[in-house]
Amino acid sequence: MIPSHAPSKTSAPAGAVLRATIEYDGSRYRGWQAQVNARTVQGVLLSAARELWGPGVRVHGAGRTDAGVHALGQVASVHLPPRARVDAAASLRRWNELLPFDVNVLALSPAPPSFHARHDAVRRVYRYRISTRRTAFGKPFVYWAKDALDVAAMDRAARLLAGRHDFAGFCENPEGHDSTIVVVEEARVTAPAEADGLVLVRISASHFLWKMVRRVVGVLLEVGAGRMTEAQVARLLVERSVEVARLTVPPSGLFLESVGYPGEAAGEPPHPLRPAF
Known about the structure:
It contains 6 helices and 10 strands. The chain has 2 domains: 103 residues, Pseudouridine synthase I, catalytic domain, N-terminal subdomain (Alpha-Beta Plaits, 2-Layer Sandwich), CATH 3.30.70; 138 residues, Pseudouridine synthase I, catalytic domain, C-terminal subdomain (Alpha-Beta Plaits). α1 crosses α2. Strands 1, 2, 3, 4, 5, 6, 7, 8, 9 and 10 form a 10-stranded mixed sheet that branches. By secondary structure, it is α+β, with helices and mostly antiparallel strands.
């Protein structure tokens, strides 16, 4: 047992904490979370951060996006090693210089010492981009739906998701989650007039389960195509069905749009055309 007056590894003064807002194209990555022998977004951020601040730096993301999923506003807490230089503006510029072309740090600012991007988050917003026409551009960023879609019916079905529900039937491996209860603040489906053939599904919730958004979108597409009713969607919230897994849409159209924290108002969504076709 170490005497109370003896120094230990945990007694060293903690370094500064920074809050980073990050955008990335997830097409070339095996998701966010660092993995051995796999290229991930967290992995390349850590590699560049260690070159910038030293080996003791840690980077924690608010959302652990899956392989092929993108982000417009991922948030990460950057825990610097003791005595690391803290110059947010200079560090932002240098960090981006060290990163690959498809990962970009949008903002970097000082944060409270206790800040943790994942544990402190109270809101995550995802959007899914659907194209109702074949496009030569932006294929890594949309899902092409070949059916004619009733967007109004999709929106009505999406609104049924709002509230506190058990989404066990919408996630992969529900037994691997501590809880499958999710509080959905809002779920909407729109077709922006200025975006030819684009349909947006936008969901804001306390947190999300593995593949939950992609399965929700798959169900809403069935509603839009006339193969599922709103009443059937309501039943899926109380009765599990193996059919939901079959409807999982690809990751290409999915974006982590933003992350919210206590005391922060829900912001306006970014422009629906970003990224452009």
